[in-house]
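> tool_call: predict_assembly(chains=two)
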Amino acid sequence: MNPENLRFAETHEWACLGGGTVVVGLSAYAVEQLGDIVYIELPAAGAVVAKGKPFGVIESVKAASDLYAPVTGSVVEVNSDIAASLDAFKTDPYGAAWLIKVSPAKTAELDSLMNAKGYDAFCKAQGEH
Amino acid sequence: MDGRKTVLCDKHVAAGAKLVDFAGWQMPIQYPRGIVHEHLLTRRQCGLFDVSHMGRFIIRGGGCEAFLRYVLTNDAAGLAIGNSHYTILADESGGAVDDAYLYHVAPHEYLLVVNASNKEKDWAHIEEQANAFADVLMEDRSNDLAMIAVQGPQSEAVLGAIVEQGALPEPKRNMLGRIIVCGTEVIAARTGYTGEPMCFELFVDAAAAGTIWDALARQGAEPVGLGARDTLRLEASLPLYGHEFGKDRDGADIPVLACPAAKLAVNMTARRRAFIGQAAIARQVQALESYKQGDFHRLSDLPRRVRSLAVLGPGIARPGDAVLADGDVVGCVTSGTMAPYWKYRLEGERACLTDEHALRAVALALIDSRIAVGTRLAVQIRGRAVDAKVVERNLENRRGPVSYAILHT
């Protein structure tokens, strides 16, 4: 079950709006699908990200995957601890494993993302394919 | 999911394995604890692998030595009963149809183990050649003979604990013997594909495979999937057909001796009779010999070699990434991953592993033969040139029963 206060992209990033910034991370489902995460590359603070465009890369033992921004805006903070504590993706995907905080250009973009219930159904459908 | 199941597939499902299609087989890519855990446990304790998807051919009869000497690059005539060796099915141009392991199991009887993805091609290739030889019988035993690998420092204790009759083969790589486990006769060979000094591969009746698998697990062997099998072989710089053998990314044949490991599989001694690919491979041997003297005029016979890389900068080299020397492309990554390792202290030549682990990126790359070990290079990872170094090896496995990471700077 995915946390109810979050919004989810079809590319499995989560977004959480609070205090004018959007915190972005990767869903527990995506972490489970990737397997052991062994490397991550994130933008620097100040970088501009665009909804639906890659902002970083996450790698499992087997393969590299792009991370897609769920919202357009500028990066105000980057989780600099995550590279050294990759286990957090498994243990705390919606907390300690956050990736970037974005100052959003248009918060209305979040409306096009799925809510927790919709995302649960989306993941289930993916699993059946 | 489509695909054939090995006789052990139910065991993998029961253990919670994630199954993937591999060469038409449903195989476990990993078990619930994941590839990193499985890699590390094999280096420290004992990994248990179902490798029954591989092809197993019995070749026997009075004419089989002459035949095997012709279709394989190593010399079956030099292989004693109870021994095995690495070998290659070469083509006339000196490329690899496949790499394989040949086990001399009984007088005039050999077991040839080939890659799952090449099984049909290999069978057709050798069967065609067999027609020219008298008294050669070929049998595909892949279905009724299962294959289980037991790898890692504790593998001897694990396997030893379930032996009911007979003795484990002499403690020397490649030796094999017959033992009774779980009431069944098994061929046990000191071979493997993990780089572990202590290692066994078992050839068992398919009907007994499940019982034997469970007995090994009860002794502490933990199942390991194809994901960690790949990181283990890559950390040990062992080649994989389709990456370091076969065709390169431009579709050209990779000469067999481009792989350092192939030196163990090619026998060019004076007593050697004609074999497929001999002339081309002889030219590759001459090229390698002249390279040792710093003479590269035979470069066209072996323009590129497979080298181990330590990736020193951030990122993971992946197959297809360009390798650069001073900004010029000198080759391409053939295999690359992030490999976990146990941190250790060296006491003399012996490594004492700690309980901490870390990760480092390792790769194999097909690069210009003129580039020497120790050379600093770059790998183009997603448009960025990342520091790397050509190294002799990334894993030390020749000193005692425990292997350990060689950390390059």
